[in-house]
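seq:
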Amino acid sequence: MVDFSLTAEQQAVRKTAREFAENEIAPIAREAEETETWPEDVWEAAVDAGLVGADIPEEYGGAGMGTLESVLVVEELSRVDAGVAAALGTDFGTGMIEEYGTEAQKEWILGGVASGEVITAMANTEPSHGSDAASIETSAERDTSERSSASPASTEATQDGDEYVIDGVKTFTTHGSIADVILTMCRTSAGGHDGISAILVETDRDGLEVESEIHKMGWNATETTQLRFDGVRVPEANLVGQEDLGFYQLMDFFEVERVGVAAGALGIAAGCLDEAVGYAHDREQFGRPIKQFQAIQHKLADMAVKTEHARRLVYDAAARIDDGDSPRKLASMAKLSASEVAEEVASDAVQIHGGNGYTRDYPVERQYRHAKIYQIGEGTSEIQRSIIAEELLAER
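struct:
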């Protein structure tokens, strides 16, 4: 039997994250969403609290949390507002740096993110290629002319043939306009999944520009951009891991990333359930609190069951990752379940709120809009179903 109880340390992590969310996120969530403003002050407070880059090893200044502890943080922050919670996640690609990066890259990126001195973004999706990552077109070609191009990953200027020239367009890049460095998936040779490399690109490089800001249905405190790379030159020292193996390096972290996304969706469901229960206590119709109506009671019961089911999948997947497993099927199950439960529970919470739930005066409206992205990002629900089916059929 799986033990889903939390250790004293994990309970303390949850308590810290919940208090931070209630004290720091709740007061600014609506304004940040409506003004589409990245909450820099809250991010700085999260850095000070050790909630940014929480899984970065202690030797680089991070909290050294495991996957389950990180899930607890994301769940609690998203429980109050998933959009602001996502806005605080400025550590994209740190897992790949930790696993495949050079020591110089680790000190630069991991140490910088943990201290709040570096904000990272990740550029993978392209206008014509979303789930079809094997078809990316952004190119990184080696140059043979003599130039000088230094970076924190290599304090020495590059020599002849030691730099990449990057051209292409990336879209749906979270934090693309506030990042200091972007982990960019590029094509370095012909082929499908083969021939893709991960390259760090500093945002002050010539030829890199924010082509457009993307305005979204939700998650508006988290800015999203389309980027254009026009002859952007970076030194060879900015290559993460091995050339042409970037896709496979990225695949190593899909389970972790999907469980992290599932945690955000779980937070939405948990928060909307809390709001619905509170509203059912306070709201009166026909001379009595609506919590006394069986229709409301049954809806709340269904919401609670769905949320707890998703929580157990998410926690189980996280715990198995911490145990050294790569639970591909379970991670996809957790992501699929939590993302769909988030939308269903948020919708039911709006329904329980009635007309008030359709207004911006109540957080369930905002969380309902946030919920949809979790069925799309890090692999759509359709992709997750295909993965689950593939794994099931392979077991026979």
